Amino acid sequence: MSRTWAGRDLCVCFPAAGGGGAPLDLVRDAAARLGLATLALPNAESVADLDSGRWGRRTVEAIRRAADRGAARRIVLAGHSMGGLSAIRLLPALGVRGARPIGVLVINTPCPDSSGRIPTMSRLPDPEIARILAHDGFPQEVLDDEDMLAEVAHGLRSDTVVADRLAERFGPAGRLTDLHVLCGRDDRFIPPERCAAWARRVSGEFHLTVVPGGHSPDTTWTTALDRALAGVLAATPAEEAAA
Predict the structure, then answer these.
(1) pLDDT of res. 92
(2) Which strands make up the sheet holding 37-40, listed edge to edge?
(3) Which of 41, 44, 144, 197 could be joined to 55 by an S-S link, Cβ 3.0–4.6 Å?
């Protein structure tokens, strides 16, 4: 990392099920506009990767190394959908490993119910997954091709099995100090009320922003993303020196 990055806050981004794509790029672009260094990291590869602790250990270490190299004074964890669950899951470990203040922004991330359940594609058939994706603007030519749809649906089901476990592991007693939530008003799969439910899990500051749009952010979200990230930074005072 070059000297020009020294002292810049670090935004760590986690994707939705199925990978990053345009939504993750939008988050990274928003972070860059606010002067943050960015680091994109994957979710756990499998339930075994999550349950064994391997994903948590390597991800926390990757974040720590990036923050140390850039002398970051604070860290923002940002995640879209499943990625928001990943960000929240990492908070306790990151708090133990370092003294840097940490803020969290989740985008269209559902709050687990009292039984640890969230809306999931893990058991949906291909046609139902296609219907959900079509509403969110997924290319119709892909959805109309049975083989391509089958590949996409298989990948989503594999990822959402891991998302289900992330939600289960949060548990009914899981609590957060502060949280910023951004969600699409027209998301039919994860409606705004499932995102708003995080308020019951937060003991400190809770900020909810609802904007027009579906499950996947697009360029019309640019201003809202900028404001949401700025809000996280405003609520996360920087240390005078990195740990």
Answers:
(1) 85
(2) 37-40, 10-14, 75-80, 102-107, 179-184, 206-211
(3) 44
